[in-house]
Specification:
It is elongated and about 50 Å long. The chain is an all-alpha fold. It has one domain. The protein is built from 6 helices and no strands. Helix content is 63%, strand content 0%. The longest helix has 23 residues.
């Protein structure tokens, strides 16, 4: 069905997306340039044009998602924008663990348990759809 190079390229994207989702969960999000974001979006568009959805290889889907899709619905009252905001504050504070993220959430008026349920949910959704990770990155870069 797919050639060896296509499978390897898809697996590389899956691995990168999973690593990015884990980094986001830990608050360790390196700066990403607009050029890198554009390159990632171009790669996803090329995969879609070839009929490749990385979900077929066990990774997050690269299919386009509408802004009003339920995948972007709040999780336990935590929006993707709130998740990105606390993640950015955590990164700025040098936080690298869950305890630190809980503390940052509490300092900003968000129940730590509620925040972590949302954070875990958003990380899971990033594992389902690359569009969630892209939108997270847009919000994260705003802060």
């Amino acid at each position: 069905m797919f050639g060896k190079k296509q499978r390897q390229a898809a697996q590389a994207q899956i691995d990168a997306a999973n690593a990015a989702a884990q980094a986001a969960m830990n608050g360790n999000i390196p700066p990403v340039s607009a050029a890198n974001q554009a390159a990632a979006q171009d790669a996803m568009a090329q995969q879609r044009a070839l009929g490749i959805d990385t979900a077929a290889f066990g990774g997050p889907s690269n299919a386009p998602v509408a802004d009003d899709d339920p995948i972007f619905a709040d999780i336990d009252g935590i929006s993707l924008q709130h998740y990105a905001w606390i993640a950015k504050l955590s990164q700025k504070a040098g936080v690298t663990d869950e305890a630190g993220m809980r503390e940052v959430a509490a300092q900003n008026g968000i129940d730590p348990d509620q925040y972590m349920r949302g954070a875990n949910g958003w990380t899971a959704r990033m594992g389902q759809s690359m569009a969630v990770g892209q939108k997270f990155r847009q919000y994260f870069d705003q802060y």
